[in-house]
Design goal:
2 copies of one chain form a homodimer. Chain A is α+β, with helices and mostly antiparallel strands and about 375 residues long. Chain A is built from 10 helices and 24 strands. Chains A, B: This is Xaa-Pro dipeptidase.
Chain lengths: ~375, ~375
């Protein structure tokens, strides 16, 4: 699998008249080697790939692991005696034009590599990665299944007295107890916190009084699993106490926006037309605006795989086209911020988001996350 | 506190003849705003600071939180209608020379900002951050205390049948149950896995047979806590079963190397001499080499604060000088790789590392991590 990917990369080099490529992003290192343990805190490794060589460059902290696990690359262990410069000098005659990941490499690193090669150009593996293999889809599916189980598990834990943090912690424990990882810190937002699309899960506690008013309390849950390096991502919004009519309307509008986006994509696929990501975004966005609600303050969706956010981008300005084998989220949302007054014309501040992952198949989109989307009232 | 830091940054701008500075790294954004919830997965925010303006630039996912929590900055919410370009254009006449963080900004971003300003220069806040305030030291101390408690807790869990992953998970649960975070994924390495300085905690299980041989089984534990955004970092190596004489020698040599490094630093401080980080590294390194063991395959230590690894660097090539208020690790290690034969001349493959954090005080170094370093045999 990795050799096939490297072969495809070499084809790209040939086509774009590049002599070599420097891979610096952790996700692309994982994509080409299968090794996923470098940390993103600082630069711990590079790949340097040319027509007839492929090096993995790292330091003594990782070299033992790399020797065991990345046998299809030559290990260059950089240290005070064995400097990266010496490798670059030895490759000078073989590399005139080196491709780098401009969206990952820092300015400082660029200056360093520029000293050694005639020309640095830009390369991106986005398109290589956006279309998933059957094996990759199987892993994402498994991550989605674990996410569904985590959601089912967490519903039982929603009780008066529990905090957002405790719920997020319960999600994490459940996922890790299954031998998987979280793909991002779970978002748990109670009440008006749900009006912040990326609320930082905090210490708010679910109170008994929350549900005694005229409205239910919104609980927004956004969680993701990482299984064998592949990510899932799903959002559900449930109500603690009976929702008001306005809250119901918001919920149904968000759900309808998602449905319309999926139907539109399916009709395009069936008719054999190209599916523009921006068009899907527009369908969902307009459904929400047409009901008098504010537009979605984020993209409708994003590709997913080794990273939680990758290509394609489903947004108004996206130039991406959806293609067979792509996996992405469709996640419309309505967020009513607290305008300073206790209630805006939409009712209490709060937000609803519904997010699922889909894979683009021959017959249309298949939903990979399968938790119920029926409006759920707890208890 | 944040206003004081911004004031100091403005002094730096004046001194270095810079009209403005673009802050992109999450740790520096936290340092200047106190807000720590941006994710490192993609660029979610910038700070743009000049003589008489200070903007925080982010998107709709974060703007509600920023409005509440970062009141000392002007929020610029970028979206499809309100583009970053418009802000940059409005500042064009006020910024000729913009400083950027070249070790953080990507090549692509650099190209983008270069379009808007006459000149981009490099800036670094490393020196601002390396000397800690009393308040910062208090937070690091608290993180260290929690780390000590986690270590005490985990010792009770070391039993036949437990896996590396389970132990790491127990550490994480303990830390999070105290309301803190882990500052990095804990390293738990059994036996020869300890010969990999950055072993990726795996599924190896502690077997009853492990301790029945002529040697004890090494268990290396490297763990860190994040408390109110400040990190701790500590490593202890314990033995499951009675260690061989060679293992004891390795352990005592590592401990002695650490002691000598600390004593050397203290003698320099007492005599009022400048303390070069590279000299401290040398003392520990030479102690290990003098006993016939391989050199430390990593730096002797690193500064710590908002990030696990920051300045100063205690390494052979470091130009850093240790100064009053700096907090850093001293972590010598001896690692005997598995040369393919079951036993090398040092005995079974394995590694020992001992790591503590120290703060540079007026009278010398104070140790902040306080778990026992006496050679510990379990059970």
């Amino acid at each position: 699998m990795f050799n096939k990917r490297i072969k495809e990369l070499r084809k790209k080099l040939l086509k774009e008249k590049l002599d070599g490529v420097l891979i610096s992003s952790i996700s692309n290192i994982t994509f080409l080697t299968g090794y996923a343990n470098f940390s993103g805190e600082e630069r711990e490794a590079y790949l340097l790939i040319g027509k007839d060589f492929q090096y993995i460059i790292t330091d003594g902290r990782y070299s033992e692991a790399i020797k065991r696990q990345v046998v299809h690359f030559n290990l260059f262990e950089r240290n005070h005696e064995n400097k990266l410069e010496s490798l670059l000098k030895s490759l000078k005659n073989r590399i005139n034009v080196l491709a780098v990941e401009e969206d990952d490499l820092t300015v400082l690193e660029h200056k360093f590599f520029k000293k050694h090669f005639k020309k640095l150009k830009s390369i991106s593996l986005h398109t290589h990665r956006s279309i998933k293999s059957t094996e990759e889809i199987t892993k994402i599916k498994k991550a989605c299944q674990l996410g569904d189980q985590a959601f089912e598990h967490i519903l039982k834990k929603i009780k008066v007295g529990i905090s957002e943090k405790s719920l997020a912690w319960e999600i994490e424990k459940f996922i890790k107890d299954q031998g998987a990882q979280i793909s991002f810190p779970s978002i748990v937002a109670f009440g008006k916190n749900s009006s912040i699309p990326h609320h930082h899960t905090g210490n708010d506690i679910l109170g008994s009084e929350s549900s005694s008013g005229q409205e239910g309390l919104i609980i927004l849950l956004d969680l993701g699993v990482k299984f064998e390096n592949y990510c899932s991502d799903m959002t559900r919004t449930v109500f603690f106490g009976k929702p008001s009519n306005k809250q119901k309307e918001i919920y149904e509008t968000v759900l309808e926006a998602q449905k319309r986006a999926v139907s539109f994509a399916n009709s395009k696929i069936k008719s054999g037309e190209a599916v523009k990501a921006s068009e899907i975004d527009k369908i969902a966005r307009e459904e929400i605006i047409s009901k008098g609600f504010p537009t979605i303050p984020h993209s409708l969706g994003h590709g997913i795989g080794l990273e939680v956010h990758e290509r394609p981008s489903l947004s108004p300005k996206s130039k991406d086209q959806l293609k067979l084998g792509m996996v992405f989220s469709i996640e419309p949302g309505i967020y009513i911020p607290d305008f300073g007054s206790p209630r805006s014309r939409f009712g209490e501040a709060g937000g609803v988001r519904i997010e699922d992952l889909y894979v683009y198949g021959k017959k249309g989109l298949s939903q990979l996350t399968n938790s119920s989307k029926k409006l759920l009232i707890i208890p």
